[in-house]
Design goal:
By secondary structure, the protein is an alpha/beta fold. It has a single domain, classed as 3-Layer(aba) Sandwich (UDP-N-acetylmuramoyl-L-alanine:D-glutamate ligase), CATH 3.40.1190.20. About 30% of the residues lie in helices and about 25% in strands. It contains nine helices and 13 strands. The protein has a nine-stranded mixed beta sheet, with helices on both faces. The chain has a four-stranded mixed beta sheet with strand order 3-2-6-7. Strand 12 and strand 13 form a beta hairpin. Helix 1 packs across helix 7, helix 5 packs across helix 6 and helix 7 runs antiparallel to helix 8.
Length: about 300
Protein backbone atom coordinates (compact mmCIF):
# COMPACT_ATOMS: atom_id res chain seq x y z
CA UNK A 1 0.00 0.00 0.00
CA UNK A 2 1.42 3.39 -1.01
CA UNK A 3 1.59 6.36 1.33
CA UNK A 4 -0.30 9.63 1.17
CA UNK A 5 1.86 12.74 1.64
CA UNK A 6 -0.44 15.69 2.27
CA UNK A 7 1.08 19.13 1.71
CA UNK A 8 -1.78 21.09 3.14
CA UNK A 9 -3.34 23.69 5.36
CA UNK A 10 -3.87 23.65 9.11
CA UNK A 11 -6.62 25.99 10.29
CA UNK A 12 -8.50 26.96 13.40
CA UNK A 13 -12.20 26.95 12.46
CA UNK A 14 -14.38 29.53 14.22
CA UNK A 15 -17.92 28.33 13.57
CA UNK A 16 -20.99 30.51 14.06
CA UNK A 17 -24.41 28.86 13.80
CA UNK A 18 -26.98 31.30 12.38
CA UNK A 19 -30.60 31.18 11.25
CA UNK A 20 -29.66 32.79 7.92
CA UNK A 21 -26.42 34.12 6.44
CA UNK A 22 -25.59 37.73 7.27
CA UNK A 23 -26.28 40.22 4.46
CA UNK A 24 -24.34 43.39 3.55
CA UNK A 25 -24.91 46.08 6.17
CA UNK A 26 -26.63 43.65 8.54
CA UNK A 27 -25.67 42.68 12.10
CA UNK A 28 -27.10 39.44 13.44
CA UNK A 29 -26.86 37.26 16.54
CA UNK A 30 -25.30 33.82 16.25
CA UNK A 31 -27.14 30.96 17.92
CA UNK A 32 -23.84 29.41 18.99
CA UNK A 33 -20.07 29.70 18.62
CA UNK A 34 -17.65 26.78 18.56
CA UNK A 35 -13.94 26.30 17.91
CA UNK A 36 -12.77 23.33 15.83
CA UNK A 37 -9.56 22.08 14.23
CA UNK A 38 -9.85 22.43 10.47
CA UNK A 39 -8.31 23.44 7.20
CA UNK A 40 -8.71 21.45 4.00
CA UNK A 41 -5.28 19.90 4.51
CA UNK A 42 -5.94 18.78 8.08
CA UNK A 43 -9.39 17.46 7.21
CA UNK A 44 -8.10 15.43 4.27
CA UNK A 45 -5.22 14.00 6.30
CA UNK A 46 -7.57 12.99 9.12
CA UNK A 47 -10.00 11.45 6.64
CA UNK A 48 -7.33 9.44 4.82
CA UNK A 49 -5.85 8.21 8.11
CA UNK A 50 -9.26 7.23 9.51
CA UNK A 51 -9.88 5.43 6.23
CA UNK A 52 -6.87 3.22 6.92
CA UNK A 53 -3.97 4.84 5.07
CA UNK A 54 -0.47 5.79 6.13
CA UNK A 55 -0.48 9.60 6.00
CA UNK A 56 2.33 12.13 6.46
CA UNK A 57 1.18 15.73 6.84
CA UNK A 58 3.41 18.59 5.69
CA UNK A 59 2.54 22.12 6.81
CA UNK A 60 2.98 24.94 9.29
CA UNK A 61 1.27 26.26 12.41
CA UNK A 62 1.77 29.41 14.47
CA UNK A 63 2.14 29.74 18.22
CA UNK A 64 -1.52 28.88 18.95
CA UNK A 65 -1.76 25.77 16.78
CA UNK A 66 -0.90 23.03 19.29
CA UNK A 67 -4.39 21.51 19.30
CA UNK A 68 -4.18 21.11 15.50
CA UNK A 69 -1.04 19.03 15.93
CA UNK A 70 -2.80 16.93 18.57
CA UNK A 71 -5.76 16.38 16.24
CA UNK A 72 -3.48 14.98 13.55
CA UNK A 73 -1.61 12.74 15.97
CA UNK A 74 -4.81 11.43 17.54
CA UNK A 75 -6.03 10.42 14.07
CA UNK A 76 -2.80 8.52 13.40
CA UNK A 77 -1.29 11.07 11.02
CA UNK A 78 2.51 11.42 11.02
CA UNK A 79 3.50 15.00 11.93
CA UNK A 80 7.29 15.16 11.81
CA UNK A 81 7.03 17.65 8.92
CA UNK A 82 4.59 19.99 10.64
CA UNK A 83 6.70 23.01 11.56
CA UNK A 84 5.99 25.96 13.81
CA UNK A 85 6.56 28.89 11.46
CA UNK A 86 5.04 32.33 11.06
CA UNK A 87 3.23 34.60 13.51
CA UNK A 88 -0.36 33.37 13.12
CA UNK A 89 -1.95 29.98 12.56
CA UNK A 90 -4.31 29.93 9.60
CA UNK A 91 -7.93 30.32 10.59
CA UNK A 92 -11.42 30.37 9.12
CA UNK A 93 -14.62 32.18 10.05
CA UNK A 94 -17.54 29.93 9.14
CA UNK A 95 -21.25 30.67 9.11
CA UNK A 96 -23.51 27.59 9.17
CA UNK A 97 -27.20 28.21 8.51
CA UNK A 98 -30.29 26.25 9.52
CA UNK A 99 -29.97 24.03 6.42
CA UNK A 100 -26.37 23.08 7.20
CA UNK A 101 -24.97 25.15 4.34
CA UNK A 102 -21.90 27.28 4.97
CA UNK A 103 -20.06 30.46 4.04
CA UNK A 104 -16.33 30.43 4.79
CA UNK A 105 -13.70 33.19 5.00
CA UNK A 106 -10.11 32.07 5.52
CA UNK A 107 -6.92 33.85 6.56
CA UNK A 108 -3.85 31.94 5.44
CA UNK A 109 -1.41 32.82 8.23
CA UNK A 110 1.28 30.14 8.49
CA UNK A 111 -0.29 28.23 5.60
CA UNK A 112 0.87 30.96 3.22
CA UNK A 113 4.38 31.14 4.69
CA UNK A 114 5.63 27.55 4.26
CA UNK A 115 9.42 27.83 3.72
CA UNK A 116 11.44 26.27 0.90
CA UNK A 117 13.35 24.07 3.35
CA UNK A 118 10.16 22.31 4.40
CA UNK A 119 9.14 21.71 0.79
CA UNK A 120 12.56 20.23 0.08
CA UNK A 121 12.25 17.84 3.01
CA UNK A 122 8.76 16.86 1.88
CA UNK A 123 9.96 16.07 -1.63
CA UNK A 124 12.81 14.00 -0.20
CA UNK A 125 10.17 11.89 1.56
CA UNK A 126 8.37 11.05 -1.69
CA UNK A 127 8.85 7.61 -3.17
CA UNK A 128 7.67 6.26 -6.54
CA UNK A 129 3.95 5.52 -6.41
CA UNK A 130 3.23 7.70 -3.37
CA UNK A 131 0.26 10.06 -3.60
CA UNK A 132 1.02 13.75 -3.01
CA UNK A 133 -2.15 15.60 -2.02
CA UNK A 134 -2.48 19.35 -2.58
CA UNK A 135 -5.10 22.05 -1.98
CA UNK A 136 -5.06 25.79 -2.70
CA UNK A 137 -4.81 27.07 0.88
CA UNK A 138 -0.99 26.92 0.95
CA UNK A 139 1.91 28.46 -0.97
CA UNK A 140 4.36 26.48 -3.08
CA UNK A 141 2.07 24.10 -4.98
CA UNK A 142 3.90 24.58 -8.28
CA UNK A 143 7.22 23.48 -6.78
CA UNK A 144 5.54 20.46 -5.19
CA UNK A 145 3.88 19.34 -8.43
CA UNK A 146 7.11 19.64 -10.39
CA UNK A 147 9.10 17.94 -7.63
CA UNK A 148 6.64 15.05 -7.42
CA UNK A 149 7.10 14.34 -11.12
CA UNK A 150 10.85 13.98 -10.68
CA UNK A 151 10.24 11.48 -7.84
CA UNK A 152 7.67 9.50 -9.90
CA UNK A 153 5.00 10.18 -7.30
CA UNK A 154 1.37 10.82 -8.24
CA UNK A 155 -0.42 14.12 -7.57
CA UNK A 156 -3.98 14.67 -6.35
CA UNK A 157 -5.09 18.30 -6.52
CA UNK A 158 -8.14 19.90 -4.93
CA UNK A 159 -8.07 23.49 -6.33
CA UNK A 160 -10.03 25.02 -3.47
CA UNK A 161 -10.41 27.85 -2.74
CA UNK A 162 -10.48 28.45 -6.49
CA UNK A 163 -8.69 31.48 -7.92
CA UNK A 164 -6.70 32.50 -11.00
CA UNK A 165 -3.50 30.87 -9.67
CA UNK A 166 -4.92 27.44 -10.48
CA UNK A 167 -4.72 28.20 -14.21
CA UNK A 168 -0.96 28.64 -13.82
CA UNK A 169 -0.42 25.13 -12.45
CA UNK A 170 0.69 22.31 -14.80
CA UNK A 171 -2.50 20.23 -14.62
CA UNK A 172 -0.99 17.86 -17.18
CA UNK A 173 1.24 16.64 -14.32
CA UNK A 174 -1.75 15.97 -12.04
CA UNK A 175 -3.20 12.46 -11.76
CA UNK A 176 -6.50 13.26 -10.01
CA UNK A 177 -8.38 16.54 -9.94
CA UNK A 178 -11.04 16.84 -7.20
CA UNK A 179 -13.51 19.64 -7.96
CA UNK A 180 -17.07 20.73 -7.33
CA UNK A 181 -19.33 22.34 -9.93
CA UNK A 182 -18.24 25.89 -9.12
CA UNK A 183 -14.56 25.00 -9.46
CA UNK A 184 -15.28 23.05 -12.63
CA UNK A 185 -17.07 26.04 -14.11
CA UNK A 186 -14.15 28.27 -13.18
CA UNK A 187 -11.71 25.98 -14.98
CA UNK A 188 -13.77 25.32 -18.10
CA UNK A 189 -16.53 27.90 -18.45
CA UNK A 190 -18.98 24.99 -18.54
CA UNK A 191 -21.81 24.38 -16.06
CA UNK A 192 -23.15 20.95 -17.00
CA UNK A 193 -21.23 18.27 -15.03
CA UNK A 194 -20.59 16.09 -18.08
CA UNK A 195 -19.46 19.11 -20.10
CA UNK A 196 -17.02 20.07 -17.33
CA UNK A 197 -15.46 16.61 -17.36
CA UNK A 198 -15.36 16.48 -21.14
CA UNK A 199 -13.66 19.88 -21.42
CA UNK A 200 -11.01 19.01 -18.84
CA UNK A 201 -10.17 15.68 -20.46
CA UNK A 202 -9.92 17.35 -23.87
CA UNK A 203 -7.23 19.65 -22.47
CA UNK A 204 -5.55 17.12 -20.17
CA UNK A 205 -6.07 13.58 -21.55
CA UNK A 206 -4.07 11.93 -18.77
CA UNK A 207 -6.17 13.46 -16.01
CA UNK A 208 -8.79 11.73 -13.88
CA UNK A 209 -11.60 14.11 -12.90
CA UNK A 210 -13.54 13.52 -9.68
CA UNK A 211 -16.50 15.90 -9.63
CA UNK A 212 -18.59 16.17 -6.47
CA UNK A 213 -22.21 17.22 -6.99
CA UNK A 214 -23.68 17.48 -3.48
CA UNK A 215 -27.02 15.72 -3.25
CA UNK A 216 -26.66 14.67 -6.90
CA UNK A 217 -23.73 12.42 -6.02
CA UNK A 218 -20.37 12.42 -7.79
CA UNK A 219 -18.74 11.65 -11.12
CA UNK A 220 -15.45 9.96 -11.97
CA UNK A 221 -14.18 10.44 -15.52
CA UNK A 222 -10.87 9.51 -17.09
CA UNK A 223 -9.87 8.60 -20.64
CA UNK A 224 -11.41 5.13 -20.35
CA UNK A 225 -13.89 5.16 -17.45
CA UNK A 226 -17.06 7.07 -16.58
CA UNK A 227 -18.83 6.38 -13.28
CA UNK A 228 -21.72 8.12 -11.55
CA UNK A 229 -22.16 7.53 -7.82
CA UNK A 230 -25.46 8.45 -6.19
CA UNK A 231 -25.48 10.40 -2.93
CA UNK A 232 -26.63 8.84 0.35
CA UNK A 233 -29.66 10.13 2.24
CA UNK A 234 -28.93 11.72 5.64
CA UNK A 235 -30.13 14.61 7.77
CA UNK A 236 -27.66 17.40 6.95
CA UNK A 237 -26.31 19.45 9.86
CA UNK A 238 -22.99 20.83 8.57
CA UNK A 239 -21.42 20.48 5.11
CA UNK A 240 -18.06 22.06 6.04
CA UNK A 241 -15.87 18.94 5.72
CA UNK A 242 -17.95 16.98 3.19
CA UNK A 243 -15.61 17.46 0.24
CA UNK A 244 -12.47 16.90 2.31
CA UNK A 245 -13.85 13.67 3.75
CA UNK A 246 -14.76 12.48 0.27
CA UNK A 247 -11.27 13.28 -1.04
CA UNK A 248 -9.45 11.62 1.87
CA UNK A 249 -11.49 8.42 1.73
CA UNK A 250 -11.31 8.21 -2.07
CA UNK A 251 -7.52 8.59 -2.08
CA UNK A 252 -7.20 6.07 0.72
CA UNK A 253 -9.18 3.62 -1.38
CA UNK A 254 -6.82 4.19 -4.29
CA UNK A 255 -3.81 3.76 -2.01
CA UNK A 256 -5.27 0.42 -0.89
CA UNK A 257 -5.85 -0.63 -4.52
CA UNK A 258 -9.65 -0.78 -4.22
CA UNK A 259 -11.77 -0.70 -7.42
CA UNK A 260 -12.81 2.78 -8.54
CA UNK A 261 -16.50 2.09 -7.96
CA UNK A 262 -15.74 0.98 -4.39
CA UNK A 263 -13.62 4.09 -3.82
CA UNK A 264 -16.56 6.26 -4.88
CA UNK A 265 -19.09 4.36 -2.77
CA UNK A 266 -16.99 4.45 0.39
CA UNK A 267 -16.05 8.12 -0.09
CA UNK A 268 -19.68 9.08 -0.68
CA UNK A 269 -20.91 7.24 2.40
CA UNK A 270 -18.13 8.75 4.54
CA UNK A 271 -19.04 12.25 3.34
CA UNK A 272 -22.70 11.58 4.13
CA UNK A 273 -21.86 10.54 7.68
CA UNK A 274 -19.71 13.65 8.07
CA UNK A 275 -22.46 16.10 7.12
CA UNK A 276 -24.82 14.47 9.61
CA UNK A 277 -22.68 15.88 12.46
CA UNK A 278 -21.47 19.35 13.41
CA UNK A 279 -17.87 20.41 12.94
CA UNK A 280 -15.16 19.61 10.41
CA UNK A 281 -12.46 17.09 11.36
CA UNK A 282 -14.35 16.05 14.51
CA UNK A 283 -17.21 14.84 12.30
CA UNK A 284 -15.10 12.63 10.02
CA UNK A 285 -15.90 8.93 10.60
CA UNK A 286 -13.59 5.94 10.80
CA UNK A 287 -13.54 3.29 8.09
CA UNK A 288 -15.19 0.88 10.54
CA UNK A 289 -18.07 3.32 11.08
CA UNK A 290 -18.50 3.75 7.33
CA UNK A 291 -18.53 0.01 6.71
CA UNK A 292 -21.10 -0.55 9.46
CA UNK A 293 -23.40 2.28 8.38
CA UNK A 294 -26.54 1.36 6.48
CA UNK A 295 -27.67 4.41 4.52
CA UNK A 296 -30.27 4.63 1.75
CA UNK A 297 -29.26 6.10 -1.58
CA UNK A 298 -30.88 9.45 -2.24
CA UNK A 299 -34.08 9.07 -4.26
CA UNK A 300 -33.85 10.64 -7.68
CA UNK A 301 -30.06 11.12 -7.39
CA UNK A 302 -28.84 10.11 -10.82
Amino acid sequence: MCRIINYGSLNIDKVYTVDAFVRPGETIHARSYELFPGGKGLNQSVAAARAGSTVLHVGCIGSEGDFLLKTLKDAGVQTRLVWRHGPTTGHAVIQVNASGENYIIIHGGSNQAIPDDLRKQALQELQPGDILTLQNEVNGNLAMIEGARSKKARVALNPSPFDASIEELPLDLVSWLFINKLEGAGLTGQHCPEAICRALLARFPGLAVVLTLGDEGSLYWDAHTRIHQKAYEVCVLDTTAAGDTFTGFFLSGLARNLPLQTCLQVASKAAALTVSKKGASVAIPTLEAVEKASLPLREGAG
